[in-house]
């Protein structure tokens, strides 16, 4: 018997890079799609010269050099986490109990051996090769075809970048990019949701086009609107490859019911039968917001207008859930696998408020000014009622629901974060929420999501991370990024050290509480990539505010960073900014495309003076006791800034 283990760490392929990109040493995507193992994790049994599989640079495919005996085969097992390394099973493709069987290939005849397309694994970190028959087998040139991001000719072609004097943040930013690359798949290789334990393959067509954005690389490989909310802006600031987002949105919209409801998830997870239709109040709204975000990134007004009738019908369905309280009374419990969704839920209503304001923009772009006025008015009413009915002064947090307001009732992570992000909470309450959420952190694991039991959710914590920035506590956002995304999701030995996990628990035992099977947890999940766009938009503070960046804002929030730089591009051109902070002095430059307009906002303590030079010459502006200096209607171009 022969048994050997291999570790695939794609960062080791950087040496084969042809083109140079800013900060390319952090890029985790391979330079070639045929990748090799870079280390032997372990061997067991009668194995010789295993390291030859690591050192070989022979370009030929996987080859069986010789085979003695009849019925010879090799088993290939795959796992994302080292916790599930074993020769006879893979990790799981489902949250249900059970493990997948290995891929068995007949090698009696020798020669080149390949697995068919549907047996790709999506994402794995460890490949276990075992030989369990009486004869012997000699192999060479063990390679794996990296099939993610099929729309990228060069997987390392990043047009965006980030760098700072904090190595943890640098690694996190690029791991987020890589995670979303893994979650951008050939749409003919979607997940088969309901498989028996002993079967696995990917051959369900989930959308049109050559690429589609899905939730996870291994599982589910299905379109989920909630995941796109996080993945889409992270992709804009890094690769700017947006076709997968468009194709995913198109698939979701194709499943809309006549009454306006949009699906909780795409096919094959979603049942298209109206009597069995799975609907989520929040994901329904996320789907609408994703359409606007795609327009924001691309400026494709024709695309936005093409969906206006469906968009309006979907919004009207949500409006019908508002009751006499002025809040939406959510009729379903489906969300991101949190508990307690339903009723006058603060998360759902905060997202609804946000969606109505976005919807008003969409309505104006489609010349429906009556809808814009009505939706804006309804949004303001929801904001007022959330503050009046759901705020708990004792905890400095919002209750989860208007129906449960006892001392031990739930104060959720998601809803409180959304209240800050959307501006529902005023500055005083936003600061209090930020401090209260931070006080609940469970070290060394991260920010808890009590609405999901003992869960630490990168999805919900991503909203909290943004809330700390918005509330004026960038140092808390940085600390949370270090604690969760770097120390736990990259450096924990149970993780991949290259991609971000779906969720975990606040304990030393690895599992994700919503699932009974820890082997089924996805270790490359796009909804966990908030830091990638948050560090660019909110940390370096470079953000587009209208289509393609025709208008923009620059609002640096360095917190504990001494240096930070970021850049990305739209069809209008490159946006970039660089900052240093030392001894109370902020220096920086930013550059935006010609023909654009924007706003610079700098926080002050009241006695500083801003010196700025740019396309219109030099200026000096004194803070004069104010807490910020704001310069509006700046022309696109390059600016030099000093605040001291």
Automatic annotation (TrEMBL):
The keyword rRNA processing does not apply. It holds the Pfam family Bac_rhamnosid6H. It comes from the Eukaryota. One of its GO terms (biological process) is carbohydrate metabolic process. GO terms for molecular function: catalytic activity. The keyword Transmembrane helix does not apply. Residues 213-396 form the Alpha-L-rhamnosidase six-hairpin glycosidase domain. Keywords: Signal. Residues 1-20 form the signal peptide. SUPFAM superfamilies: Six-hairpin glycosidases. This is Alpha-L-rhamnosidase. It comes from Fusarium solani.
